[in-house]
Amino acid sequence: MLRPSCAYVPGAAMKRREFICLIGGVAATWPVSAAKAQQRRVPVVGFLRGGTAAGGANLLTAFRKGLSETGFVEGRNLSIEFRWGLDSRERQAEAAAEMVRRNVDVIVAPGFSVAALAAKALTSTIPIVFTTSGDPVQLGLVARLSRPGGNVTGFTDMSSEIIPKHFGLLHELLPRGTRFGVLITRNYPYRDRMITDARSGAAAFGGQGEIILTGLDPDIDAAFAEMKQKGIDGFAVPDDALLFGRQSQILTLAARQAVPGIYFSRDWAVAGGLMSYGPPATDQGRQAGIYVGRILKGEKPADLPVARSSRLEFVINLATARALAIEVPPGLLSISDEVIE
Predict the structure, then answer these.
(1) Quick one: 18 and 167 in the same domain?
(2) 191-244 pLDDT, tens digit each
(3) What's the predicted TM-score (pTM) here?
(4) Residue 258 or residue 110, greater confidence
(5) What is the pLDDT of residue 119?
(6) Same domain, yes or no, for 169 and 272?
(7) Are residues 229 and 195 in the same domain?
(8) Cα distance between residue 241 and residue 88, in whole Å
(9) Residue 118 and residue 92 in one domain
(10) How many domains, in total, are found in the chain?
(11) CA–CA distance, 61 with 325 (Å, rounded to integer)
């Protein structure tokens, strides 16, 4: 850019020349200042999740769709900092603390209420969006569903209550089965509810419900050894976030030991699980994206009611059933939402 000469000129001419020099100097800095301002205006979202990006692909696609519905596109007017593989409480706490230190604009923990709680303990100012299968009031995430208060809101499908349905589907598949288990880690937030539901769900057909506990650092091999020792006919895996990253190991052992399993979401059935029954991950992801976008536009988490969904989907993997030498009854096939050949 050509700048005006700032040589000394007496009188009024000097004042005009000084003014022109001042404007010229400011204008010369406009492109840099504007670029910096533009960079500052791009919000950053911290995304906390267990498992892998591949395993959460459907949820992530839905999350980006929800963002786009509110006008935000990653890489254009939004930046997302991903932290996957948070399969221990230590890693969850570290990731939450990192996002708070970086002062991101929003922290989102889809399907990961433990990470949301960790973040809430560290900040009362950064908005937090969660999705969970349980009661967020009972968990201590929000004060009320209708008006959450504070800096936290999100989505729940209340699907932590579907273990009796899981057991019912397993029993319909295996009418001679009487002993079914639930695989969870020791600090699963809904452990007490899960124990009650397992017992009542199995009692409905004269069976027994067992809770198969793993350590905080899940020892899946030991859990399957316990199932074998107890004579478990089939087992259920709810949305325990600490098990997300163990999907491959769980499915491999279930196939190797020929133990039928039913899982909380479709991606487990797609990956080789026998059956899945639960809320579509796409509902959670999309709603989380919408809420993040609304918050970035100025709405307060305290004023956004916790969204709820009652939609559930049932998926059967026939290839896995054949590998286990299980003939799926026509009645189950007729009520399924999807059959994987």
Answers:
(1) no
(2) 888 899 999 999 999 999 999 988 767 899 999 999 999 999 999 999 887 888
(3) 0.76
(4) 258
(5) 95
(6) yes
(7) yes
(8) 9
(9) yes
(10) 3
(11) 35
Q: What is the pLDDT of residue 160?
A: 63
* Distance, CA of 112 to CA of 109 (rounded, Å): 5
- CATH code of the domain in which 229 resides: 3.40.50.2300
Name the nearest CA neighbour of 112 among 83, 137, 138, 145: 83
Residue 267: partners with Cβ closer than 8 Å, 6 or more residues away: 55, 56, 57, 58, 247, 276, 281
Q: Are residues 185 and 318 in the same domain?
A: yes
Looking at the structure, do residues 83 and 27 belong to the same domain, yes or no? no
pLDDT, mean of residues 235-263: 92
Average pLDDT over residues 125-134: 92
Residue 203 and residue 332 share a domain: yes
Q: How far apart are alpha carbons 52 and 44 in whole angstroms?
A: 21
Phi and psi at residue 79, to the nearest 5° = -120, 135
Task: Of 119-128, 241-250, 310-319, give the lowest mean pLDDT range.
Answer: 241-250
Label residue 54 exposed, middle or buried (CB < 10 Å: 0-12, 13-18, 19+): exposed
- Give the model's confidence band at 334: pLDDT under 50 very low, under 70 low, under 90 confident, else very high: very high
- For every residue of the chain, which 3-state class applies, written as one string? CCCCCCCCCCHHHHHHHHHHHHHHHHHHHHHHHHHHHHHHHCCEEEEECCCCCCCCHHHHHHHHHHHHHCCCCECCCEEEEEECCCCCHHHHHHHHHHHHHCCCCEEEECCCHHHHHHHHHHCCCCCEEEEECCCHHHHCCCCCCCCCCCCEEEEECCHHHCHHHHHHHHHHHCCCCCEEEEEEECCCCCHHHHHHHHHHHHHCCCCEEEEEEECCCCCHHHHHHHHHHHCCCEEEECCCHHHHHHHHHHHHHHHHCCCCEEECCHHHHHCCCCEEEECCHHHHHHHHHHHHHHHHCCCCHHHCCCEECCCCEEEEEHHHHHHCCCCCCHHHHHHCCEEEC
Domain of residue 86 covers 43-157+281-308
Considering the domain architecture, whether residues 56 and 137 belong to the same structural domain is answered as yes
